[in-house]
Design a protein that fits this description.
Elements lengths: L2 E10 L2 E11 L4 E5 L6 H9 L6 E6 L2 E2 L5 H6 L2 E3 L12 H9 L6 H14 L15 H13 L5 E5 L7 H16 L3 E5 L3 H7 L2 E6 L2 E6 L1 H4 L3 H8 L3 H14 L1
Helix pairs in contact: 3-4, 3-5, 4-5
Length: 251
């Protein structure tokens, strides 16, 4: 098992932002975590990746207990994450930004520099290498964020809304990039609101609502679950959708 999260809990004051969440990610798979805004998805990610200390539960990476380890030690073991709000090193070029990630694997500048170039190829940024990061569009910043994490040589990528702010054609391009990364042997756990991407990419789906995992399984089955529909659309929504579908079938 690449990642096993058991009973993870994170509390802020009296709020259980994550409440006894259990998630498993098998090696080589893409697993998606969805849920309405404020469900606790990013807090769960931060607790898994070491940015927030969990108040309960355990995180195992490739069978090793990494609960409570600092971020840099977790990254060295092969798990890294992206962020919703991208923060490139604006005064540096795209190439230099990617090389920052590459230095975690390569201590010699020439090796890091060449590795950064190969990562730029994967994410479609070879033609932007000399461009200042400050000049990038939203789509460019998203790709750069992905490239910097990929340059560290991860075994497991935690992707936090990597599609947010992209237009339909950019979403399709990002889906293709993630499929290429997966084919190279990198496992992924992703938070995503773009359901087109979730359904195209994920092998398994978890749904988080008010800090609790309320459903999991095959993506097609999970998204038609009445509990999941109501978590997104409110009480009674599943019944209303079923009635509408029945009415349409008789029309």
């Amino acid at each position: 098992m690449m990642l096993k999260v058991t009973g993870l809990t994170k509390i802020f004051g009296g709020l259980r932002a994550v409440d006894n969440a259990t998630i498993e990610v098998e090696e080589g798979r893409i697993v998606a975590l969805i849920g309405p805004n404020g469900a606790g998805k990013t807090t769960l990610f931060a607790s898994i990746a070491g940015f927030l200390p969990p108040d309960g539960g355990q995180v195992e990476l490739m069978g090793e207990n990494i609960t409570g380890l600092p971020v840099h030690q977790i990254a060295r073991r092969g798990m890294v994450r992206t962020f919703q709000v991208t923060q490139p090193l604006a005064r540096l070029t795209v190439h230099e930004n990617i090389a920052v990630g590459a230095f975690q694997r390569f201590h010699h500048r020439d090796e890091a520099w060449e590795h950064a170039r190969s990562i730029a190829d994967i994410v479609g940024m070879r033609h932007m290498l000399e461009q200042p990061a400050s000049d990038l569009t939203v789509a460019g910043r998203k790709r750069l964020e992905l490239a910097r994490t990929l340059a560290t040589g991860p075994k497991l990528l935690l992707l936090d809304e990597v599609m947010a702010g992209l237009n339909p054609s950019e979403i399709l391009e990002m889906i293709t990039i993630l499929q290429t990364i997966r084919a190279s042997g990198v496992t992924m756990l992703l938070i995503e609101h773009v359901m087109r991407a979730v359904m195209s990419l994920s092998d398994h789906l978890y749904v988080l609502s008010y800090g609790k995992i309320i459903a999991e399984g095959n993506p097609q089955t999970v998204v038609s679950n009445p509990t999941v529909i109501e978590a997104y659309l409110g009480r009674g929504a599943a019944a209303q959708m079923a009635l509408a579908a029945e009415g349409a079938s008789h029309a």
